[in-house]
Amino acid sequence: MNIQRPRPNVATPNDLDAFWMPFTANRAFKARPRMLAGAKDMHYFTTDGRNILDGAAGMWCSNAGHSRDPIVSAIQKQAATLDYAPPFQFGHPQAFELASRIAALAPKGLEHVFFCNSGSEAVDTALKVALAYHNGRGEAGRTRLIGRERGYHGVGFGGISVGGMVNNRKMFGTLLTGVDHLPSTYDREKQAFTKGEPEYGAHFADELERIAGIHGPGTIAAVIVEPMAGSTGVLATPKGYLKRLREICDKHGILLIFDEVITGYGRLGYAFAAERYGVLPDMITFAKGVTNGAVPMGGVLVRDAIYDSFMKGPDHVIELFHGYTYSAHPLACAAGLATLDVYRDEGLFERAKALEPKWADAVMELRKEPNVVDIRTVGITAGIDLAPNKDGPGKRGFEALDSAFHDHDLMIRVAGDTLCLTPPLIISESQVGEIMDKIAKVIRAVA
Ligand code: PMP
């Protein structure tokens, strides 16, 4: 295979302590650093000359593979033309064009886009829009926010409050008050080794009725869920679950937000997972795939009724006191437009949909490997659960990642005892096989 190598002479710096790395065991990393020097299509290249097969699309970002020429040129051209534009009281054409292109991809009814710079900002924006929407309609008492156990919604205070990952919450005090959590929809006993959406579990949505009953439905502003919980191990929502949530939200005037930071832009074979599930949320948060990961960008798609409710006051008054210095950044917009062209021209969403059955079969083959206690697949994703080792639940992860990366030149994401796979959607069938071979070897090595 013709793998383009990065420019040589990318040295590892001597002092690694100035950079406090995010979500990383800094001391372990710095004792044994792993440095990426380049990337092209399905591969990363390290400073010590390895070619790493990307089984993670970086971090669920690069759906079209890495350093794609049209995206690179669009960013270069934009940087040389309009490098930065203040987003308050000024616009630039690419921002409006990108918003229209994204709205055209979204389910009908979600027609407006608020831009920000990350998934975390998208989540906090959506939660704030929900609160401001109710407030503006004279329902200021609707302040309660509902998330889900094992949900991940980024690291803003809003996101960790509605998120359901203990480690992301426990260091940070009381967080937002007035937050409840739906139960996780995962039940290994009833759902193990499911391809696609589990048959069992739509009833987990009914917990929303119970929560509404406790507090009074008129106190709840919004519910936020991922159509497929990615960071906590690839947990597809059960068949009928999202429809049921939609019905309960409709009944009680609660807004429904889908966090599609991972599931957006083709990961589940559709532009947005909302389309796969035939459920129209009131807002969709997105990030990652919108620019193929090349420039940070996030955003919130909102329904007409929400947007319109902010547009009805006097036209010289700011409608929503919210925004970021880098909202709709020109480089991100240029990257976004070029990315959407690549997705369209290469038919990558359709490709993902067509590949899903073969992908699922290939991943399920791993069930015969030692210690594999569950495998889940949906779209071009997979979560492979290993039985906890002697160190206890969730303690195996770093070793598995380490060994996969170093010994077998494969990049995957590890969440506790779960190996998460989300390769770029340009992956070939032989590369699917290559990933599975490497995973099998790693699983045997850590057994
Ligand atoms: N929401 C979901 C569903 C995510 O998966 C992530 C990131 N993995 C985020 C929000 C946060 O995105 P970011 O890291 O860009 O802030």
From TrEMBL:
Cofactor(s) annotated in UniProt: pyridoxal 5'-phosphate
Pfam families the record matches: Aminotran_3 (PF00202)
PROSITE patterns reported for this sequence: AA_TRANSFER_CLASS_3
InterPro entries: Aminotrans_3, Aminotrans_3_PPA_site, PyrdxlP-dep_Trfase, PyrdxlP-dep_Trfase_major, PyrdxlP-dep_Trfase_small
Gene Ontology molecular function terms on file: pyridoxal phosphate binding; transaminase activity
Assigned keywords, A-Z: Aminotransferase, Pyridoxal phosphate, Transferase
Similarity remark: Belongs to the class-III pyridoxal-phosphate-dependent aminotransferase family.
Protein name: Aspartate aminotransferase family protein
Organism taxonomic ancestry: Bacteria, Pseudomonadati, Pseudomonadota, Alphaproteobacteria, Hyphomicrobiales
